[in-house]
Design goal:
Blueprint lengths: L11 H12 L27 E12 L8 E12 L7 E13 L4 E13 L9 E4 L6 E4 L9 E18 L2 E12 L8 E8 L6 E11 L8 E4 L7 E6 L4 E10 L4 E8 L12 H4 L2 E3 L11 E2 L10 E3 L2 E5 L2 E5 L7 E10 L3 E7 L4 E14 L2 E14 L5 E5 L11 E12 L4 E7 L2 E8 L10 E4 L1 E8 L6 E9 L1 E11 L6 E4 L8 E7 L1
Parallel strand pairs: 22-29
Antiparallel strand pairs: 1-2, 1-33, 2-5, 2-6, 3-4, 3-6, 3-7, 7-8, 8-33, 9-14, 9-32, 10-13, 11-14, 12-13, 15-31, 16-19, 17-18, 18-31, 19-28, 20-25, 20-31, 21-22, 21-28, 22-23, 23-24, 25-26, 26-27, 29-30
Length: 519
């Protein structure tokens, strides 16, 4: 039997489908295209590029007046550098999703900036391709005074179609068009390493300091490990957050004063992987991922008036109901950071950032109350700093934060970060949720040295408002038993100013991101 030499191509319908998916903003976890074997062998579909660096730049207008700081960020340029040269005729579709306080609509919202390009003459690797924005709809207010955070790049999607992957399986010639899709949620394929530059900024040599960074996608199947610039293994821990499709890394390392220290994250080499260095107990001052079947009482205290069996630990999660609290047996001194991941965060959760020698603690109460006035129901979200007696559960003095938005968020998959910076004259506290500053608080004196910290859950109180607006009366209408569920908690050192961590090719502070293509 004799076959004529022929060509097998992916059709334009495939391209149309991919572009339609991207245009609609649907998640594209992967594109798998199989070419049936003809005789022997097959041709794989490959991407025209392995990765791209995307930088977002802004035009910033200053509207500040007195103590009111107010800026307007308007999207200026999207600058793209590809890892590989693109052949003539390559088409590119890009969609940048931005979330921020839109100055045109006066509200928080997500916006999609899109662009379609045909590289008629191709494009060289490493040569910046600049897309200039001329639409004022991508403008966002930013203000620390009003608690308005800078615009966030939620995702970047790029679809590339161009060039071909050729195979000759005599007597048939197969040509498969190259196609690739990249998003912030994709981890790299194959093997390699990612350099991370860590700049010490406090002017001190730091020993066993813990730095952290995030990378897009799930790295848990890539056998990641970390070394210093001399190839020495470093202790580390990572966590994949399926909600944000990012992997968070923490690495313990030594830093030389005022120097740039480079570490390397290796991936894709199973034979070089050593699981003994993936050890949170070697990284953090304190760590608990609640992996047992009961609360670990070697790590936690609970009030004498409560039964340990009432604290539910199951499937690696700690469940706290209204009226339950606990605090560490380990003490902490100086400045430190508490990272707490809530699988589900409910109203009236309260991290306890400091407990003195009399078991009196300072708690950050994240509260929601419902107030009904006639036919209207108001939801009141607020943050207060509250004194709390860990022995009997009574509340003491309360203060409103010095700054921050004062509007906590509740729901699933929330990272709560409490930063405590202790100086010779005062202690400063900063509360973040998923990276956004919620509240700040300053004590005029330093806490006692070496004290524990804790975590609790209270009840939600709802009210009915009656009477005239000038003299309203509040009546307690209901008490709700709330529940929060936690995946893990860790404590790590902090120094001011913190080291600057820059993942080469990804510096979110300057809106620069590296995204990886599939297949």
């Amino acid at each position: 039997m004799h076959f004529k030499m022929g060509k097998l191509r992916l059709t334009s319908a495939m391209l149309a489908l991919v572009l339609l998916l991207a245009t609609l903003g649907l998640a594209v976890p992967s594109i798998n295209v199989s070419v049936q074997e003809i005789g022997v062998g097959s041709c794989d579909v490959v991407s025209p590029a392995n990765w791209a660096d995307v930088q977002i730049t802004w035009n910033i207008t200053d509207y500040s007046w007195g103590i009111w700081d107010l800026y307007e960020y308007t999207l200026n340029e999207v600058i793209i550098n590809f890892s590989d040269s693109l052949p003539a005729g390559t088409t590119m579709y890009i969609n940048v999703t931005i979330y921020g306080y839109n100055s045109n609509t006066g509200q928080y919202q997500s916006d999609s900036f899109t662009n379609f390009t045909v590289f008629t003459s191709g494009w060289s690797a490493g040569l910046p391709y600049i897309i200039t924005n001329k639409d004022t709809q991508y403008s966002y207010y930013v203000s620390s005074f009003f608690g308005i955070s800078p615009p966030e790049i939620v995702d970047i999607k790029i679809v590339l179609v161009g060039g071909s992957n050729n195979c000759t399986i005599l007597p048939i010639y197969i040509e498969v068009q190259k196609i690739g899709v990249a998003t912030l949620s994709f981890a790299p394929s194959g093997s390699g390493n990612v350099p991370i530059d860590v700049t010490e900024r406090s002017g001190q040599d730091l020993r066993d300091y813990v730095i952290n960074f995030t990378l897009g996608g799930d790295w848990s199947s890539l056998y990641p490990y970390v070394t210093d610039e001399n190839g020495n293994r470093l202790y580390y821990w990572y966590f994949y957050d399926a909600a944000s499709q990012k992997t968070w890394f923490w690495v313990k390392m030594n830093l030389s004063a005022n120097q740039v220290n480079t570490i390397y994250l290796f991936y894709g080499n199973q034979s070089a992987y050593d699981a003994t260095y993936f050890n949170p107990d070697k990284v953090f001052w304190f760590f608990d991922d609640f992996n047992g079947v009961t609360l670990n009482l070697s790590k936690w205290n609970i009030p004498a008036l409560q039964n340990p069996s009432n604290y539910t630990v199951s499937n690696g999660l700690l469940e706290l109901k209204g009226g339950q609290w606990l605090w560490t047996k380990q003490n902490f001194s100086g400045s430190f950071i508490i990272d707490l991941y809530a699988n589900s965060l409910d109203s009236t959760a309260f991290p306890i950032f400091y407990v003195d020698s009399t078991n009196y603690g300072w708690a950050i109460l994240l509260n929601t109350s419902l107030a009904t006035w006639g036919a209207t129901t108001y939801q009141l979200n607020n943050v207060t700093i509250r004194g709390f007696n860990l022995a009997d559960g009574s509340w003491g003095a309360f203060y409103y934060p010095d700054g921050g938005s004062r509007s906590p968020i509740f729901g699933k998959d929330i990272l709560i970060t409490t930063l405590i910076n202790v100086t010779s004259t005062q202690a400063e506290f900063y509360l973040y949720e998923n990276g956004s500053l919620i509240a700040t608080f300053t004590q005029g004196y330093s806490p006692e040295q070496s004290e524990p910290l804790g975590l609790g859950q209270w009840y939600e109180y709802n009210y009915t408002i009656t009477g005239p607006r000038r003299n309203p009366q509040l009546t307690l209408s209901s008490i709700i038993n709330t529940t929060s569920i936690y995946d893990w908690i860790l404590v790590r050192p902090y120094i001011y100013p913190e080291p600057e961590v820059r993942v080469v090719g990804q510096t979110s502070g300057s809106y620069t991101f590296r995204i990886y293509f599939k297949p």
